[in-house]
Design a protein that fits this description.
This protein has about 300 residues and is of the alpha+beta class. The protein has one helix and 15 strands. It has a 15-stranded antiparallel sheet that branches.
């Protein structure tokens, strides 16, 4: 009987053990499948996160570009806002990033002996501060009288700040390259340069000199001339500025021209509307020679 009991127990164990092992195997497989599923889910999530990160990076790049554009616009706006209202306190060279467009309507009346003739035109000038202490520009014009036509002249301009503060002495090197595109004319026939200088005695009074100091004629009969100008600027108040310029002496062609021979006068008055806009009137004549006169209305806009 004992043996029979043992045999029954063994047979029962043999039936139970395979089921247990099979269940355990199923559990292991289910756990492996669960872990594999979790890994796949993690990979998918990681891919989604990667795509989201790439999208965020693209958005950040776009935002960065927009910010750069906004910063440039803001810097230009700040440059215009910080530009001095008083003309005597302004730098001789435009600050970096600041643009200025000028329009001048001029009427010229010339007298040669008994004959008098007049012309009128519109001159347009653009200047820009490209890097610290350096500006470039160009100017052209439109003839209005006696015929309406674009002028055949195009002038390139440049200025470099050597020294300068609102108070005391300010210096800037200037150059002008006039180009002519008319028929039977040399494209480049002359050059001019100057060392613009301004000295402010106080908030109201300033002395100017050095503009248009040297002129070179590059034609067949090459020559050079030197003019020494001087001007006085008076700042009436924050918005009104008056200025008078003349030439002390001129050298050229073996001749010396003094104030006894010719005394050109250039009278100007400006009204500063705001930091971005000016309007002014100017009159040119000669106090010694009755060679004619010119009147000009000007408008400057900065951005």
């Amino acid at each position: 009987m004992k043996y029979i009991k043992h045999l029954i127990l063994l047979s029962m164990l043999s039936l139970v053990l395979p089921t247990v092992s099979h269940a355990q195997a199923n559990n292991d497989q289910s756990e492996q499948s669960n872990t594999a599923g979790k890994r796949k889910g993690k990979k998918k999530k990681d891919k989604r996160k990667g795509k989201k990160k790439k999208g965020k990076k693209k958005k950040d790049k776009r935002k960065g570009k927009k910010k750069k554009g906004k910063n440039k616009a803001k810097s230009q706006a700040r440059g215009a806002k910080r530009y001095p209202m008083k003309i005597n306190a302004r730098p001789l060279v435009l600050p970096t990033g600041l643009n200025e467009v000028s329009a001048a309507l001029e009427h010229i009346s010339n007298s040669q002996g008994k004959k008098d003739f007049s012309t009128s035109g519109l001159a347009v000038t653009f200047r820009r501060g490209i890097i610290p202490n350096l500006e470039i520009g160009a100017s052209t014009g439109l003839a209005l009288n006696p015929e309406v036509a674009w002028a055949s002249n195009f002038t390139l301009r440049g200025g470099y700040k050597i020294a300068g503060q609102r108070k005391g002495l300010a210096l800037a090197a200037q150059v002008e390259i006039p180009l002519t595109f008319g028929e039977n004319q040399d494209v480049l026939s002359s050059l001019s340069g100057g060392l613009a200088a301004r000295y402010r005695f106080n908030k109201r009074l300033a002395i100017y000199s050095g503009e248009g100091l040297i002129s070179l004629n590059l034609g067949k009969s090459a020559s050079a001339s030197i003019n020494i100008p001087i001007g006085v600027g008076f700042q009436v108040n924050k918005q009104i500025n008056l200025r008078a310029d003349t030439r002390i002496v001129g050298f050229g062609g073996g001749n010396v021209t003094s104030v006894a021979d010719s005394l050109p006068l250039h009278l100007r008055g400006f009204y500063t509307i705001n930091r971005m806009m000016d309007a002014g009137l100017a009159l040119k004549t000669d106090a010694v020679n009755d060679s004619g006169w010119s009147a000009m209305a000007m408008f400057n806009y900065r951005m």
